[in-house]
Amino acid sequence: MAQKPSLPKGTRDFGPNQMAKRNYILETIKSVFKKYGFLPLETPAMENLSVLTGKYGDEGDQLLFKILNSGDFLSKTNAGDYESGSKALTSKISEKGLKYDLTVPFARYVVMNQNDIAFPFKRFQIQPVWRADRPQKGRYREFYQCDADVIGTQSLINEAELLAIVTEVYSNLNFSDYEISLSSRKLLEGIAEQCGASKENFGAFVTILDKLDKIGLEKVNAELTQLGLNEENLEQLENIISIQGNNQSKLESIAKILDSTENGSNGIRELTETLAHFEALDFSDERVKVDFTLARGLSYYTGVIYEVKPTSISMGTITAGGRYDNLTGVFGLQGMSGVGISFGIDRIYDTLTELDLFPDTSVSTSQLLITNFDIQGQSFGLNLVAQLRNKGISAEIYPESAKLKKQMSYANKKGIPFVILLGSEEIDSGLMTLKDMKNGNQEKISIQDLLTRFSS
Hints:
Blueprint: H1 16-35, E1 39-40, E2 46-48, H2 49-52, H3 57-62, E3 66-68, H4 79-84, H5 86-93, E4 94-98, H6 103-112, E5 121-130, E6 142-151, H7 157-172, E7 178-184, H8 185-194, H9 202-209, H10 212-225, H11 231-241, H12 247-257, H13 262-280, E8 288-290, E9 304-310, E10 319-324, E11 338-344, H14 345-354, E12 368-370, H15 375-390, E13 395-397, H16 404-414, E14 418-421, H17 424-429, E15 431-436, E16 442-446, H18 447-455
Parallel strand pairs: 1-5, 7-8, 12-13, 12-14
Antiparallel strand pairs: 2-4, 3-4, 5-6, 6-11, 7-9, 9-10, 10-11, 14-15, 15-16
């Protein structure tokens, strides 16, 4: 009995219709990236684990897909390795892993090619990444990321331009139901300091704070109490997260609270300057919201951070990024500050699908199908399809002689809008019968008129 085929959980096939829609998203994003001066780059699907581990925090390390060494991967192990647990064993049987994101491999590339790169270096990268996560709505084990990064400058103009890119991309996709949350790791450090969290507990503090919209203030306070925060600290935090108003008034209000913290003041300055540059680029901040609880989970962010979520449907983050000052340092290149953004193609696809925002024209196919009934018609049809293609017209000939019903069914299923009915009469007269598959109308047309009409 033949085995029933299946897919690994958290992965998907994309047929021609789905690929047309995905390409619509990718081409839209790519055109904006190019408009802002970004250059294309690709890196391998796999990286050495030494490159990947320790860059995403403990949780990220747990989600790395590891690749078994080739050959007898158990040959370098002993009984003690099994007793020591999976970490000790893994280091001996696996040296490589599938990449978790595009940013760390990008940093590795920059370090390896630093002498050939003109800095600041602006690159975009569109490739799949893999995470051993639990599959659920909007979360996959294999998914595409679409990144743009600038490395080699600390200018906050780049932060503003990445916000501009987000705005242009979603405008070009005719998607407006989103919000950009904006914060800064420095601002969060200032909030943590003001609220009595120690430097050692900063990571835990922001992780708990980031849960606010999921578990509520009461449970957040309970978890923060475990970090040593007292009632006065929690009251201070509540005062901060309850600040309302537009971005300018929010920043002015929190500046008064954090005026004694250097990190907090620097974070406020970064956000104020970024928003000023964004406005200077002729963009409105109506969808940009300064969010004091935003804490991107990846440990390498050091400055401004941002994420985009839909507002009209339940969906996770669809775009996110931030400033990372020390990423290349772990590979031996110090002082190379960068900032980047990542578009989650799969979630954007799901969002546009749920909101029915894909244009009808996003699904493309052949414009013309030439029928094939016999050897004479096949020979004539091959010559005709060559003429059409030479004019840049998307056309195909049915590959074998078949009954009309079968060929019409093929055209319908594939969504081909026009069929050339090619019989002996058409060959003898030189006038083709052109059938409009949408309304069923037929007309006689010369080859020259056919070429003119469909190439215009």
